[in-house]
Amino acid sequence: MTMRKAIPRGEKGAVQGIKMWLMDADEFVRNERTSRKNARGINNKFALFESLETLATKSVRKPAMGLGLVVPKLLTQVNSFKDLAYDWDTYGALPIAEGAIAQARQLLNALSLQLVYAPAVSVHVFPMRDGGVQVELDRDSASMEIEVHPNGSQDYLLFNPDGSIIGTYPSLFVALRHFIDPPQQVAL
Amino acid sequence: MPLHQITPEDELLRRIILQPQFFKITPDGVRRPTSAAFKMRSGEDGLSVDILGLTTLEQAIANRSTHTGAILSAKVPLDNRCPCVHDPVAGNPAHALIKNVTPALAKLFAINARLL
């Protein structure tokens, strides 16, 4: 796997590319929105897509199985969490916060782009007892949990298939990289 | 009623909501609860469960049309340094608490739990 492929040629482009790797993909997209219609920005969006494709296509490339196909169903499920009243789990669970639902919707849309070529990733969404939303991604080699808390903040956890934790991550982008390509030895 | 000393041989039951689904179906057809079912929320002293040996499924799950149960061997939390404490409450003498449950351990519980 080569990371160089993601960095556009040219000094300015390269600087942009490195910045892109350093920040969360969502943050990158947000920043790009503020400078949209900028040709360099478009190139870097493509670079992001290209790099994730490179990560994801370490095995068979099956765009027909992309996450985009199931996102509408997942969004509907997330919306249905609005109907959960207090104590929905019989253990005092809180209603799901509007902010968490909105954030989870954004997250699913982002994932549908970032995992467009990821092979055999199954995705589930669940309400959380504290009023948040949990997104779970599963592959044969790893599982990932994204906790969207009621205040909109997110935590990223990566697990081995046996349930032992690989690590927690501050950034969706880094977590996704390890989800697609789990580290052999982790020192976090 | 004397307090029960929970041992690795005990089975603990956690109620699981059916709609929206609080479980997923693995590619090999096994229904597996989500770790979200085993995560504590702030302010909780422990994760509530019922000691199966002190109750029945009918008592533990009052409405089987809305809820099912996930059964976890007490060995799993005990082996992971999570004390399990019998904590009878009004109307539920089989109630117990699993202490010190972190999000990482919740995943382990979910993988090792068996859905009814």
Mean pLDDT of chain B equals: 93
Number of strands of chain A: 5
Strand content of chain B: 25-35%
Number of domains of chain B: 1
- Fraction of helical residues of chain A: 40-55%
* Unreliable sequence segments of chain A: 1-11, 13-22, 35-43, 55-64
Task: Report how far apart the termini of chain B are.
Answer: 28 Å
Describe the biggest sheet of chain B? 6 strands, antiparallel
> What is the CA-atom radius of gyration of chain A, in angstroms?
17 Å
Distance between the termini of chain A: 22 Å
Q: Would you kindly provide a written description of the structure presented here, covering whatever features stand out?
A:
- The complex is a heterodimer of chains A (188) and B (116).
- Helix content of chain A is 40%, strand content 15%.
- With 188 residues, chain A is an alpha+beta fold.
- Chain A has two domains: 1-56, no CATH class; 62-188, no CATH class.
- In chain A, 36% of the residues are buried.
- The model of chain A is unreliable at 1-11, 13-22, 35-43 and 55-64 (pLDDT under 50).
- Chain B has helices at 57-60, 75-79, 103-112; strands at residues 11-17, 23-25, 31-33, 47-51, 67-73, 84-86, 95-98, 114-115.
- Chain B is globular.
- By secondary structure, chain B is of the alpha+beta class.
- The chains are: A alpha+beta (188), B alpha+beta (116).
- The interface between A and B is medium-sized, with 32 and 25 residues.
Write the layout of secondary structure elements.
The complex is a heterodimer of chains A (about 190) and B (about 120).
Chain A (H helix, E strand, L loop, with lengths): L10 H12 L2 H10 L4 H18 L14 H10 L17 H17 L7 E6 L5 E6 L4 E6 L5 E6 L5 E5 L2 H9 L8
Antiparallel strand pairs in A: 1-2, 2-3, 3-4, 4-5
Helix pairs in contact in A: 1-3, 4-5
Chain B lengths: L10 E7 L5 E3 L5 E3 L13 E5 L5 H4 L6 E7 L1 H5 L4 E3 L8 E4 L4 H10 L1 E2 L1
